Transporter
Amino acid sequence: MINDTLYFDFKKDISAQLLPINQLSDLAVASSPLVKYEKQVTVSQLEAIKLAKSQKFTNASGFVNYSTGNQAILSTTPTGNDAIGQIANGYRAGVTLQLSLFELFGRKHEVRMAQSNQQAAVYRREAIELQVRRELINLYQDLLTAQRILLVKMLDEENSLTALRIAEIEMQQRKLDPNTLANVSNRYSIVKSSTEEVKGQLLKSFYQLEALVGVPMQQLRRK
């Protein structure tokens, strides 16, 4: 039998030996490189939103300075220059803000565009996750179908082998002509070849499942 490299008994129901399909589906989504990529795209789009919102403050600047000495504000009067005020010595602080027309009318559209791109990235990731889950379901069903066909083929092969052994004995006892033995042997060869083909399909489905889920074969077995 072909369980030398696998961890399942193909004569028993495979669905009862594998992890539940929901768990297999979650593992496939978690290990998918495409899903991982789209998650990072979503993160980058969130950062783009933050950047678009923060850029509205790029034209704002602050200042702090300290002044000393006589800083009188002079005015001209009929009697001449006269100090009409005195600015107190000490620290000065303030903010300079310059707003362009883009900041007033265009920035909100840039933020909305970044938000739309981020939402589109989320939808694209969800679509890929759905695609992975569908692929897993199809592969899972192909595996179960291949096993059912294999069981039928194995039974047919056993019957054909038994018929061949009986024909060989009857041939030795001169109860069977060579043409009949050749026909029985030929049928067994055809059945045997068909069984091996189905075995190959089943093995391929198992290895594809292992690759899609992203964990070693032995970890796919239900405990």
In short: The chain has a mean pLDDT of 77. The two ends are 22 Å apart (CA to CA). The helical segments are 14-17, 21-31, 33-54, 101-172, 178-213. The CA atoms of residues 157 and 193 lie 9 Å apart.
